[in-house]
Amino acid sequence: MDTDGTEQDRGPRTGAGGVWLRPAGRARREAPPLSRDRIVEEAVAILDEEGAGGLTMRRLAERLGTGSTTLYWHVRTKDDVLDLALDAIFAEVPIPRGESRGWRADVTALINEWRATLLRHPWSAALLGRPMLGPNVLARSEFLYAALLGAGITGPHLTAAAYGLSNYVIGSALMQATWPADTEQAVRRAAGERLRADRERYPVLAEHGPLVADDDRDGGFALGLAWLLDGIEAGAGSGGGPRRPGVPAM
Q: Cβ contacts of residue 55 below 8 Å, gap of 6+?
């Protein structure tokens, strides 16, 4: 029976992220001439064209001109394919090289490239809750943490800063990917009419709300990122992070 492979061989090293936790197996001598790289390349193409819902092991095998059984020589499950595809697109995010322009410029460059990559692959942001243990993801996470550490952010503040930046870029890309521009314009027009009609009840939203303000996604993202980095920079200047509520300044 042909399945998508997401329920096969369930265990601690199967499911989402399992592909990174299993030892790399030897290629069997009788395995057909199909590489993992080719599988991942075709999987990304399907995901770009049809989204995560369009990817099945059967569909992938058909695109590769082979059978599902042949596919399972190289990947155990659909979860494996998704994990590998996610890590593959992270290779498109360039890591700032050469002489550093400062931690803030380096982090800004990384985050902007990360966002651009997620928007080129609109299916990806919704899958980023999976364990991210592939080499491309880890290399970029290492760079982000190292840059923040170099700015003087340490301990739990380091994790909070990295999570804040990651959640910001993922949330922004997810909103943009799931709300196409043509749909957004129609909603914005309807929302503007509704808020203008209820101006007395919602005066601030009618004048300044996100659904009536100018739609500049790139500019809005850049401004929000600058605010986040301002906060991180201020925290670094005060000893690694903000004070806890109720704790007076020394």
A: 43, 46, 47, 78, 81, 82
Domain 96-237 in CATH 3.40.50.300? The answer is no
The per-residue pLDDT for 8 is: 45
pLDDT computed for residue 248 by the predictor: 43
What pLDDT is attached to residue 247? Answer: 44
Which is nearest to 128 in space by CA: 87, 164, 177, 161?
Answer: 87
Instruction: Round to whole Å and give the CA distance between 93 and 166.
Output: 14
The residues, ordered by sequence, that sit 6+ positions from 111 with a Cβ below 8 Å of its Cβ are 165, 168, 169, 225
Query: Is 232 in contact with 153 (CB distance < 8 Å)?
Result: yes
- Which range has the worst mean pLDDT, 92-101, 149-158, 180-189, 237-246? 237-246
pLDDT in tens, 42-64: 999 999 999 988 999 999 999 99
CA–CA distances in Å: residue 102 to residues 55, 99, 143, 207: 41, 9, 13, 38
Is this structure's pTM higher than 0.85? no
36-89 CATH fold: Arc Repressor Mutant, subunit A (1.10.10)
Q: How far apart are CA 180 and CA 162, in angstroms?
A: 28
**DSSP-assigned states of every residue in 157-169:** HHHHHHHHHHHHH
Indicate the SS3 state at residue 141.
Answer: helix
Say which DSSP state 65 is in.
Answer: T
